[in-house]
Each structure stands twice: as C-alpha cells, then as structure tokens.
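Please supply some protein, with fold tokens.
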Amino acid sequence: MKQTILARRYAKAIFTVGQEQGIYEDYNEVLQGVANLYATHPEVADAVTNPLYPMDVKEKVMKGLVASMGVDNVMGNFLNLLVQKKRAGLLPEIAASYRTMVDEVKNISHGNVTSAVELDDELKANVQTVLEKLTGKKVALTTSVDPSIIGGIIAKVGDLVLDGSIKTQLAGLKDSIKGRE
C-alpha cells in the first residue's frame, strides 16, 4: 500500500510538470515504454534496482536508457532521480498511475467484456457504444473468452459490472428454487 501511494505521488509530480508544459502525453509514452522494458527485459530492471550494484553503475545504466529514448531533460532528470532515491523499482507502478491520470484528463475508461465465444467486430462496437452511454466516457474495450459462463456477456468498466451471463442467471434461478423449499 505504501509503495502504491509513493508511486502515485511521483506520477502526480511528473504529470503536473508535463501538463504545464503541454507534453504529458509524451511523458506517458516514455513511462509506458520504460514499464514495458522492465516487463520484457527483467535484467534492465535489475540493473537499476539491485542493491549489489554501485550507485554510479545504476546511474550510468539509466543515463544510457534516457539517451537511447531521446527524452527531454525534465523526464531524464526524473528517471535519474528515481535511481538516486532508490525508487527505480516503482517505475511500473508510477507508469500505471500516470496512465490513469492521463485517462482521466482524456475522459477515458478501460473496460473488459468476457463472453463464452469470440465476439465479432459489430457486436464489440455495439457493446462499446452502450458502455460509453452508461458511463458518459469513452471506453477502451478489451475482450476475453471464458466458456464457463455458458452464454451471454459480463461487462466491467471501473466499478460498473453488468453480468448477463447464463451461468449467473442459472445460479440465481438455483438460489430462487432453494429459497422456496
């Protein structure tokens, strides 16, 4: 919990600077890129977070990353500061918090639709339109397939959950029948 709060504070600080300069979307790309780099190449994360490595080595690695990404001085200093303060391990959480802040500014929500079978593009578009009307925000939709729901869909956007699956309907019918006994 403490790490999440700390990550949110760092994200808010760099988001505020990016917003003032009008380049917060560029900063989002950099942070998402670094988070992706951490996920796909754990040795990079290890090189800047491992306490066994001397600080000057970690700083050189981060400076190399910054130079290869071609980011501006503010973002470069931010990333180097994370290494110096031994907070480079928070970068994936900082990136996630930052993305949430960007989505709030752009009025975007992320949603997930689970269905028993793969949805065609027209049905996905219809579901997305309905969810956008319900939430009043633009919805970035991801889909997944779970045959165990038998039929129907389960749509989740933020706190909103719409469960129209046959599995849930059968469970409700079962509870209703048991209640009458």
About this structure: The helical segments are 2-21, 24-40, 42-49, 55-69, 73-84, 91-106, 121-135, 166-180. The chain is about 65% helix and 15% strand.
